[in-house]
Amino acid sequence: MNEAIPAADRGVLRNRAFLAIWSAQILSQVAANAVTSALIILVAEITHSNTSSSLLILLAVLPAVLFGIAGGVIVDRADKRLVLMITNALRAAAIVPLLLFGTSLTVVYTVSFLVAAVTIFFVPAESAMIPGIVRKRDLLVANSLFTFTFNGAFLVGFIILAPVVVSLYGYEILWTVIAMMFAIASLLCSTLPPSPPPTDKLSPRVAEMAVAQTRQGMAEAFRYLRSTPLVTWALVYIALTYTLVAVAGALAPGFVREGLKVGERNVVILVAPAGIGVIFGLALLNIIGPRIGRSRTIGAGLIVTLTALLGLAAARPFAEISQRLSERVGAAGLGEAFPFFVATVAGTAFVFGIAYSFVTVPSMTLLQEELRDDIRGRVFGVLNMLISVFSLLPLVLVGPIADVWGVAPVFVVAAVIVGGVWVGGRSTRGARPTKLVTE
Question: Residue 359 in contact with residue 305, Cβ under 8 Å?
Fold first, then answer.
């Protein structure tokens, strides 16, 4: 078995501390994403309102904007092992009210905000812990594994675990599973070595210095981005795809209610094919990606995304026509057209998942290859900020728009934006990478 694993990988895979924190990351990130996904479905079932679903995701995004800097300052001056243990334990405890008062909107919104706020402290503590338990020569492999599982956790938790378990077994089973995942992650973190005490204890002066350093670092990152359009557009592509996923997640329950004329819990009809499409897209990238090149891959992904969004926008009008025809012959719902319609929507979602892979993976690879080591952390900080900021306005607007005019206009506007990004970045995508030019 070990012979199939490259020698460079066996170093971290034999490191018990790394395996513990990596396993904790997988469990906790899958659980956190599953909480958000299931709460979206639950709020949609309670309120039948797209605005309520948007508000829920907004509460999950807001802590990153409000407490992101403070979280990093506190983590830098605390025992990372203790932070990891406490944050996972707190998230496990935050799930308990859902088991007791799961139908209360106040409880649902509060839990969503608390889980997201605690996660703000978990993520930087986790990243800061890795250099202390992994040899320097193994850092690249360790960070690659963490990046892969971080993105995979979104797919498994948000798109697969929550919708499937809710659809088949109900919320109580899912809340129990999620609480256990957080609790096990906390126990795994307790086996980690304690981090050395900080040289500077947390104080108003230290916090002020940290904020000033953060502003300086962000300013340097933006100056760098202005001089490297290729990297800037890669950030835009990634932020765009993450925002589209957030918007789609907020509208998915309303979409199956309005378009498929079924209950919100059947959102798995939409999200499961999208998740499978992401996996298929990743496999397809390995085959055709090197042949067509990164620029064409991203461009094709954007065009396919635009097409898929327009296809989803046409779903509701088509469903209304099918329903009228079914009512004329005395059938309920979509009648005989239902299986065909579900297959069409699922196929469109599958294509959307492929397009997501085609845009996000080459863009992220470009960032990893192009960024200088001394600027990488700050640029990824800008990326996280862009994702949070880009998500805020759409999440505020899409719910009310969908409630008044339906989900179709939202998908049409999203398609127009994707088209604008495709046109805007077309000339830059054709440019040669900076490192290749300088070498």
Answer: yes
Find tokens 């230290």 and name the residue: 206
DSSP category for residue 79 = -
What is the CATH architecture of 223-439? Up-down Bundle (1.20)
Per residue in 204-252, pLDDT (tens digit) is 665 566 566 666 656 666 676 677 777 788 888 888 887 888 777 777 7
User: Of 102-111, 219-228, 306-315, where does the model show the most confidence?
Assistant: 102-111
Given a cut of 80, is residue 324 above it in pLDDT? Answer: no
The predicted model scores a pTM of 0.68
Please report, for the chain, the start and end positions of each structural domain, with discontinuous segments joined by +.
7-202, 223-439
CB atoms near residue 286 (< 10 Å): 9
Q: Taking Cα atoms as reference points, which of 275, 300, 284, 317 lies closest to residue 411?
A: 317
Listed in sequence order, the residues at least 6 apart from 331 whose beta carbon sits closer than 8 Å to its beta carbon are none
Helix/strand/coil for 104: coil
pLDDT tens string 20-39: 999 999 999 899 989 988 99
If one compares 177 and 235, the residue with the highest pLDDT of the two is: 177
**7-202 and 223-439, same CATH topology:** yes
3-state secondary structure 133-189: HCCHHHHHHHHHHHHHHHHHHHHHHHHHHHHHHHHHHCHHHHHHHHHHHHHHHHHHH
DSSP one-letter code for 193: P
Helices vs. strands in the chain: H and E counts, helices first: 18, 0
Fold of 7-202: Growth Hormone; Chain: A; (1.20.1250)
Distance CA 300, CA 358 (A): 7
